[in-house]
C-alpha cells in the first residue's frame, strides 16, 4: 500500500517494533515444544511483521524485505517440507509421517521431537508466505515482474 | 471459578457483535470485529485453551483486520443496506 | 425485513441457550469425554495421550505433540487448505501485465 505521507511516528515505531515481532515469531515456532505456540501462530506473526512494514513504509521498502514473487513458491516449499518429512519416513521403511523411522541418530523419542520440529518449520514457512501472498494479491500492486 | 470475568467478556462479546451488525461505516465494523475476536481470545484464555486463544488473537486480531481494511480500500466504504 | 432478521436471531439465541443446558459442565470429570474409559469399555484417546505423550515424543507441550505427531495427517490437510487458498488468490486476483495493456 502506498504511504500517503511519511509520518515519522509510525515510521519510527514500526521499524523498531517489526524486527522484534519477527524474532518473537521465530521463537514461537521453535519453542512450540515447550510453550503454547507452534507453526501456525509463529508463521502468522512473521507475516504480521512483514505486512506491518508493507503497510507503514510502503511497498517499495516491503519489496526489498520480501519480494512478492516469493510468496507462492515459499508456501509450496513449506508444504513440501511437511510432505517430505512424511515421505522420508516412508523411504526408510516406516509408514507415512511416522517420525520413528527418520534417519537421525537419536533415540526414539528425540526422533519424534525433531520430526515435530521439522513439521512446525514447514507449517510456519507455508503460513507466512501464503498470508503475505494473499495480502499482495489483494492489493494488486505488482512490481516489475 | 473466574465467572465474573467470563460474564463480563460474554457481555462485551455480544455487545460488540451487535454493534458491528448495526453500524453503517464498514471501517468501524472491521474495528469492532477485531475487538470481538480479541474478546473471544481472552475468553479462550480464561477457559484454559491458551493455544486456541493465541491463534485467535494473532489471526483474528491481526491478519484478518488488515486484510479486511485492504478490501475496504479496494471497494467501497459504506454499507449498501 | 429487519424485524424478521431480529426475530431469527432471537429464535437462534433461545435455541442455543436451550442446547447449552444439555452440555456437561466445563472440566467435569464425570462427563463421558473426560472419563478414563468410554462407555463401551475401551480406553479413551485423550487419556492415552495424557499418559504417553511425553514418553513417546519427548515434548512437554501435549497440544503440539497431538497436532504434529498423533494427528499429523490432519495438520497436513490443514496446510494444504491454506496453500489452496493462497493459490486461488494468486489465480483470481493477480493481474498480468498483458491484460492491462489491452
Describe this structure in words.
The complex is a heterotrimer of chains A (145), B (81) and C (102). Chain A has one domain (8-139). In chain A, helix 2 (39-57) packs antiparallel against helix 3 (59-65), helix 2 (39-57) packs parallel to helix 5 (108-139) and helix 4 runs antiparallel to helix 5 (108-139). In chain A, 43% of the residues are buried. Chain A is 70% helix and 0% strand. Chain A is elongated and about 60 Å long. The model of chain A has no long low-confidence stretch (mean pLDDT 86). Chain A is an all-alpha fold. Chain A has helices at residues 8-30, 39-57, 59-65, 71-91, 108-139. Chain B has helices at 3-22, 26-47, 50-74. The model of chain B has no long low-confidence stretch (mean pLDDT 88). Chain C contains five helices and no strands. Classes of the chains: A mainly alpha (145), B mainly alpha (81), C mainly alpha (102). Chains in contact: A-B, A-C, B-C.
- Distance from first to last alpha carbon of chain B: 43 Å
- Structural class from helices and strands of chain B? mainly alpha
Number of separate strands of chain C: 0
Give the number of helices of chain C: 5
The biggest beta sheet of chain B reads: none
Distance between the first and last residues' Cα of chain C: 44 Å
Strand portion of chain B = under 5%
What features would you highlight for this structure?
heterotrimer; B: 81 residues; mainly alpha; flat; C: 102 residues; 67% helix
Task: Please specify the SSE layout and strand pairing.
The complex is a heterotrimer of chains A (145), B (81) and C (102).
Chain A: H1 8-30, H2 39-57, H3 59-65, H4 71-91, H5 108-139
Chain B: H1 3-22, H2 26-47, H3 50-74
Helix pairs in contact in B: 1-2, 2-3
Chain C: H1 2-20, H2 45-57, H3 62-70, H4 72-93, H5 97-101
Helix pairs in contact in C: 2-3, 3-4
Quick overview of this protein structure:
The complex is a heterotrimer of chains A (145), B (81) and C (102). Chain A has one domain (8-139). Chain A has 5 helices and no strands.
Amino acid at each position: 500500500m502506498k504511504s500517503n505521507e511519511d509520518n515519522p511516528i509510525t515510521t519510527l515505531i514500526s521499524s523498531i517494533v517489526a524486527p522484534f515481532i519477527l524474532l518473537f515469531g521465530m521463537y514461537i515456532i521453535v519453542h512450540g515444544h515447550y510453550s503454547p505456540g507452534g507453526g501456525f501462530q509463529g508463521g502468522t506473526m512473521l507475516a504480521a511483521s512483514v505486512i506491518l512494514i508493507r503497510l507503514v513504509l510502503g511497498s517499495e521498502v516491503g519489496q526489498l524485505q520480501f519480494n512478492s514473487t516469493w510468496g507462492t513458491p515459499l508456501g509450496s516449499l513449506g508444504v513440501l517440507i511437511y510432505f517430505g518429512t512424511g515421505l522420508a519416513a516412508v523411504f526408510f521403511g516406516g509408514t507415512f509421517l511416522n517420525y520413528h523411522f527418520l534417519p537421525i541418530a537419536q533415540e526414539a523419542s528425540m526422533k519424534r521431537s525433531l520430526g515435530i520440529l521439522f513439521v512446525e518449520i514447514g507449517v510456519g514457512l507455508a503460513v507466512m508466505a501464503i498470508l503475505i501472498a494473499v495480502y499482495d494479491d489483494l492489493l494488486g500492486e505488482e512490481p516489475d515482474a | 471459578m473466574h465467572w465474573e470475568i467470563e460474564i463480563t467478556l460474554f457481555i462485551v462479546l455480544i455487545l460488540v457483535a451487535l454493534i458491528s451488525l448495526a453500524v453503517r461505516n464498514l471501517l468501524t465494523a472491521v474495528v469492532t470485529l477485531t475487538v470481538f475476536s480479541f474478546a473471544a481470545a481472552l475468553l479462550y484464555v480464561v477457559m484454559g485453551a491458551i493455544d486456541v486463544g493465541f491463534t485467535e488473537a494473532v489471526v483474528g486480531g491481526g491478519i484478518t483486520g488488515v486484510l479486511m481494511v485492504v478490501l475496504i480500500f479496494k471497494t467501497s466504504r459504506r454499507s449498501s443496506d | 425485513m429487519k424485524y424478521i432478521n431480529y426475530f431469527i436471531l432471537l429464535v437462534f439465541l433461545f435455541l442455543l441457550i436451550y442446547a447449552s443446558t444439555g452440555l456437561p459442565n466445563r472440566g467435569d470429570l464425570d462427563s463421558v469425554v473426560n472419563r478414563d474409559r468410554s462407555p463401551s469399555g475401551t480406553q479413551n484417546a485423550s487419556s492415552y495421550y495424557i499418559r504417553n505423550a511425553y514418553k513417546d515424543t519427548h515434548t512437554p507441550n501435549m497440544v503440539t505433540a497431538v497436532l504434529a505427531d498423533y494427528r499429523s495427517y490432519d495438520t497436513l490437510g490443514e496446510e494444504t487448505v491454506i496453500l489452496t487458498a493462497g493459490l486461488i488468490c494468486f489465480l483470481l486476483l493477480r493481474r498480468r501485465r498483458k491484460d492491462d495493456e489491452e
